[in-house]
Design brief:
With about 375 residues, this protein is α+β, with helices and mostly antiparallel strands. The chain has two domains: about 110 residues, no CATH class; about 250 residues, no CATH class. The chain is about 45% helix and about 15% strand. Strands 9-8-7-6-10 form a five-stranded antiparallel beta sheet.
Length: about 375
């Protein structure tokens, strides 16, 4: 007698356990995906609460104790909403009549966040009339006629220490058609090489040199701090200044590492970058903006000028997020005018140690370029 295969109720010749296996796998996958999504939602909600709390803390115009109380209230609402969600996962959902009690903290926290965001984005505006730190006390004033750029308030401080200095500003006319070279300057933090301030220097065939540095404009007696810089506590300023001031102070007085790389660019390209940067400086005088550590800083303003002018490809924003590593990225993209390997180029164009042995006088820029040429030649000849 021929034996027939076992059939279950579906008549397909498969057992119930075989049918359950794909379902179990799908259930496991769904559990993983839903758990991951839930964790992402919770993290995003917590970050929203943190942002709203800090926005109130840093930007609220009331007395300190009122500001602190409001920030604590926003934080309390978000903390309560997270406890609410955790409790909801353990207790079955109540009927619609009780839904308000079950979700009241989430609804109140969402309302508070909406109010904070509307106020922060709509009413916290930059005020150019504040009392500024001496080095940021004047915005550059720019007039352009063709290639001739007349700049008032070119900064020219004489620094003896961080707190002992002689303020100085002058007016100068630059011919953008006479730009002979351009330099990319990287000033890492002493404690961490991955974060740095970056700026551009321009040298002209008539012997002039000028630095353009995008910075957070500080109020008087208020030090720069990382967290407030992300909450509209500093305004954006294009400092246009003498090299011995803007570059020299960082190497000679602040004792920061300073690397000054010669840029590989055509005269027309350097001219276009210079004109675009001074036009932006002029716009900021009329339409002030807030500085932001990540969204509106020295690095992304410089890359914005380069992207706006087209030409050679640029790295993604992510590649230059750590500004202290931007020189490595720029070298890889061929932006530096040197044939040295990267590690040797870093040594050849580091000038802070030299700055500490030379006076910050009128001949500083000429001696600086002689030093760059000499150090590059010495390392090239050492091969």
């Amino acid at each position: 007698m021929r034996m027939l295969p076992n059939r279950d109720s579906n008549g397909l010749g498969t057992s119930a356990s075989d049918l359950r296996k794909p379902t179990a796998r799908r259930l496991l996958l769904w559990t993983i995906l839903s758990g991951t999504l839930s964790a992402c939602v919770i993290a995003a909600w917590a970050l929203l609460g943190l942002w709203a709390t800090l926005a109130v803390y840093f930007c609220c115009p009331f007395r300190a104790w009122i500001t602190l109380g409001l920030a604590a209230a926003v934080a309390g609402l978000f903390a309560g909403s997270l406890r609410e969600r955790k409790r909801e996962r353990r207790v079955p959902r109540l009927g619609t009549r009780d839904s308000w009690k079950q979700r009241r903290f989430r609804l109140l926290a969402a309302g508070a966040a909406a109010i904070v965001a509307s106020w922060y984005l709509g009413f916290v505006k930059p005020d150019p009339t504040l009392e500024w730190a001496p080095e940021h006390s004047r915005m550059p004033h720019v007039d352009v006629e063709g290639d001739l750029v007349r700049i008032s308030n070119v900064r020219n401080f004489l620094w003896r220490s961080r707190t002992d200095f002689t303020p100085g500003f002058y007016d100068r006319t630059y011919d953008a058609g006479k730009i002979a070279s351009m330099y990319y300057v990287v000033v890492p933090m002493n404690s961490f090489d991955g974060v740095a301030h970056v700026m551009l220097c321009f040298a002209f065939s008539d012997g002039q040199a000028v630095t353009i540095s995008v910075e957070g404009r500080r109020e008087k007696n208020r030090p720069y701090a990382i967290l407030p810089s992300m909450f509209r506590q500093f305004q954006l300023i294009y400092v246009i200044g003498d090299e011995r001031d803007v570059v020299g102070v960082r190497g000679a007085i602040w004792k920061n590492p300073v690397r000054m790389y010669p840029a590989r660019a055509t005269p027309d390209r350097m001219r276009a970058i210079f004109l675009d940067m001074v036009a932006r400086a002029h716009k900021l005088e009329e339409e002030p903006e807030f500085y932001h550590l990540i969204l509106n800083n020295c690095m992304n303003n410089i890359t914005a000028h380069l992207r706006r002018l087209g030409g050679r490809p640029l790295p993604s924003d992510l590649a230059v997020l750590l500004t202290g590593l931007s020189d490595r990225v720029a070298y890889r993209f061929g932006y530096f005018d040197t044939e040295l390997p990267f590690e040797k180029a870093r040594r050849a164009f580091r000038v802070d140690q030299w700055m500490q042995t030379t006076p910050l006088d009128e001949g500083f820029s000429a001696r600086l370029r002689e030093t760059l040429v000499r150090q590059e030649r010495e390392l090239r000849d050492s091969d």
